[in-house]
Amino acid sequence: MKILFVERDKNFAPVKYPRNTKEEKLIFNEAYLETEYVWGLSRYIGKWDSSLDISPAGPSEMVQDLSVEYLLDILNNDYCFDFDYEPEEEDILVIWYNYKYPDLRRMPKRPYVRGYTYLIFRDGKWIFDIWIGSKTESITQGFIKFL
Known about the structure:
The chain has 147 residues and is mainly beta. It has 2 helices and 8 strands, in the order E-H-E-E-E-H-E-E-E-E. It has helices at residues 22-31, 68-77, and strands at 3-7, 35-46, 62-63, 66-67, 92-99, 115-122, 125-128, 135-146. The termini are close together.
């Protein structure tokens, strides 16, 4: 199974509210439960000038059905981005699993499905590591497409 990191359009708005027809509401109720793997890519720009003792949250070695080992194999051996991108030292790729649509009022509560991991580009390759908060700037974000 191959994957592609697809860049999301800057004007992406995931919610299209249903109109008043029963058919549209049924379709929306099904879509409301759809999940996806999403990612965010950030560039390291420096350390925080703070004396706060930050305890990092531990990322998972599995994000739903995707293992970190599998993701690292693809990232380090194939070009898997659908846009022009050359990783730089300390770039951070956050991958998480979540619902496509945000929680909406008047919709039933959904089961908790969130899971995430951090991958960091160091010494010319992507690695799994705990990322401790530092100054970053967002490069882009998107979703994972399975080919």
